[in-house]
Amino acid sequence: MAMISALLVAGLLSAPLTKTIDVPFSVTDDALIVDAVLNGKKTSYMFDTGFSGTIVLDSPIDIGKPDGTITLRDFVGEFQAETVKIKSLKLGDLEVDAVGKTVVKQPSNRISEQYNHRCDGIMGLEVVSKYVTEINFQNKKFIFHPDSYDISSKVPDNKTTFLAKMLPLGNTSIELSVETLAGKSMVLALDTGNAFYGTTHKDVLERVGIWTPGKQPEFMKMAGVASGAVESFYMMMPEMKIFGVPVKQSVWSIIDLPSSSADHDGTIGFGFLKNFNITIDLKRRRVWLEKFTEEVGNQPEAEVGLSGAYDDQTDRILVYYVTPKGPADKAGIKRGDQILGIDGEDPGQINFRDLMKMMQGPKGSVVDLAISRDGTLMRIKVTRDFMINGMK
């Protein structure tokens, strides 16, 4: 007992949580944002259970000098970043155990623009890994339960409450099973940082019999991941059980490259998770899901079929991908075109996510684009349509 007390004082063990602590968060269209105090500085973060580390700081806030580097992995690749030691980290009244934890520094300082909300970086799974953590989307708060709170003893009704067992794949992600009606399974991580409903890879769909090997998608897109842009497409998925939850149909983003890890098939993202209050217990390796919405699937969106983003050099929105055979392609829009106006409005320094949303709308609706190509101004009307593979 004396030895344990000494270790607690030395900071080598974290004291067990003996009371419930609530910490509020904000919810945007596709992200969860929480405030924190890092090394004495007030900061805000997108909470990302798909990131195994502690914090990625995407702002110029000075929290100390870099003291090392780290290799990060996303859906398809790896990249290097500098690290800074964490001296203290607080979420509301919760004093997070900071021993051995680091901040990953990124120089872009653009994350607030992505979410239209003050956001200094990304907070990962390691922050909450020692706590029984409830992500209560319904009331927009974290609930950190006492260590004695045991969700593995709860009995789900499998209608509104579900108990999922984590797969034995380590403790750096929350890997759970997704089952097709044919009995095939995929290993997918619970990922609050993925804005899509679900993301996997074409070769995974081939393995479970959802995609025919050798078949090419009719409509391709570009998706942005941490290591860069990758080719992808939307897919209408058949009926399946996601973490034990029956879902009749849903639209996923499918990456047309193999996964960066052989035992990891992708992630289930914010589009699905926001329908639940989710309690995560990494120690007991269980996840409790309580559904509070009527519909847990998602509906297809019609769009124009172009991707673009603000370009610092030209101070314009630059089109960098046009979906072949999509509405924008048929209307004559080309890669490299500059978007000067959308429905009569100046888009300004709009980010990738907001531009994508502005291009979406009801099937048959029209978006009026003002385009500059080689100095020539053109007005092009584009009619939105579904570009989702697998739709009947």
> What gap, in angstroms, lies between the N and C termini?
65 Å
What's the CATH superfamily of the largest domain, by name? Acid Proteases
CATH class of the largest domain: Mainly Beta
The number of E-state strands comes to 31
CATH level 3 topology of the largest domain = Cathepsin D, subunit A, domain 1
Question: Unreliable runs, pLDDT <50, ≥5 residues?
Answer: 1-13
| Helix percentage | under 10%
Give the name of the CATH architecture of the largest domain.
Answer: Beta Barrel
- The shape, in one word, is globular
Average residue-wise pLDDT: 88
Largest sheet: 10 strands, mixed
Classification by helices and strands: mainly beta
Provide key terms for this protein.
single chain, 392 residues, mainly beta, Cathepsin D, subunit A, domain 1, Pdz3 Domain, ten-stranded mixed sheet, 41% strand, globular
